[in-house]
Design brief:
By secondary structure, the chain is an alpha+beta fold. The chain is built from 24 helices and 16 strands.
Length: about 575
Amino acid sequence: MNAATAYGWKKKILRIDLSESERRIDRFVPEQSLLNDYLGGRGLGAKILYDAGRVEALSPANLLVFATGPLTGTTTPASGRVSLSTKSPLTGTIFDSNCGGSFGPAMKKAGYDAIIIAGKSPEPVFIEIEDDRVELKSAETLWGENVKATTGFLKEKGSGSVACIGRAGEKLVPLASIISDATHAFGRGGVGAVMGSKNLKAIVVKGTGKVAISDRAEFSKQKKAINRLLIACPTISKGLSVFGTPFLVKITSWMNVLPVANFRKGEPEQDFNLKPFFAKTIEEERAPKRRACYSCPIACKREDKGGGELPEYETVGLMGANIQNPDYEAVVEANRLCNDYGVDTISVAGVLGCYSELRGKGISPEELVNLTRMVGDKQGVGEELGKGVSSFAASEGHPETAIQVKGLSLPSYDPRGVKGLGFSYATSNRGGCHTRAYLVAPEILRKPKAIDPYTLAGKAGHTKIFQDRFAAVDSLVVCKFAFLGAGEEEYANILSAVTGVDYTSEDLMLAGERIWNVERLYNVREGFGKADDILPDRFFEEKVNGRVIDKEEFLKTLDEYYRMRGWDEDGVPREGKLRRLGIRRKK
């Protein structure tokens, strides 16, 4: 790489300590090598958390790190996302979550690569940022309000982007999320509970600056190249752009990987009608409006005619067939409640799948709505459900009914039929998650090329490559859907044009590998190891559609994966690997 310039990155990090005794607002300039090596977003957050040392998730010492990437705030296609990193109170792992909308671009235009929040305020507060002006203001009158009321009140006072928690975050529900501009979620992992533990209700950001681009002519050329590739990709132009993410429902049901009855069946009962959940039905009956994040030509989000948000694929799949609820309308209402209370839809659906199995019957539409509300309010059985699927199943004496990895509920793809994706669940640094490697792309959508979903052969290598790839993507920060059409080379080219630093696709992959290893070191320091890189026994023991995962083959693949990563037999990165990546092990 060439010498760094002042383009792309703002070279300024804002740190706010909310504690009464330490309350202060500081700004500092990060080392350019840190930005070059970790890019921004998820990578920058991971490095900051690892260097900060061990903490308890809900202690004042835990950090919330909101981080933009070097492409954020430009008009790079699909670059309107922002990353949040913290230690998860649900899983105990390092955790990152990113969301779209306008919060990230507002941060970047206000002049910040990252905002680090530490400490705990003695009283409820919100943070108001407008360029160099940063103020803490009382949130006493907002405490107890849900997301939509909070967002509406704060937007009436100004034109900034709002990220806030609802009552679930205030009550420290381990499934709580942070919601940006009422509908975009920093979901999963209980990040909203961390924000609530700090007595921080919201962050409002308005930026009036611009992001400098090193070579505008080259930037324009590379932007056009990426847009052409996105248009040429049928999965994007004829799938996501036309129908949104629910277009996957018909595909996964056809492949028999749509979870049914808490991952116990391959197909719904004969009287269960999946048609109302199909994207074409939703399109015909609702004529939903397309909604795009900042600088995104894909526009995968959908709203009804009244502007209300419609659920995405994971929510539709897991709140439908997996809990045996036949009513799409109930899923729409439960999704809106999750957004308003600020709770993660995948995790709520996952624990409800467990609850349904233990009761021996499906969850009715009325129950789905009522139980969702109870989780958000931490009332009745909702208090136990809100602790997450591992805790709830253990409290009922049936831990085997918790379909999770490292305490995080699995998304809406049965790993018996997409075995590489299942392997990526098991080896994910943040727990059961499809987006860490996003092998949905090659195993289901056949992008960038098709690979056999029914075998583990070769999946150690595929998993490593895709994990490194999307660690870099999450650090740029770019939407994964763009990589169904474009790739590392195109985004390395546009990154070079923006920053003035010469990046190749190999540089991006190396950065991704560096980030993955830092995250692994964090988890190893927290006590995670080989025993945690595993799927629930159900997938090794119970056949669905004649398929099961061979455990012996799985463990051999895990050993192969460790060797390919340069880790020892327990999954701990070796010193030689760390030296090559420029990482120092810390206690």
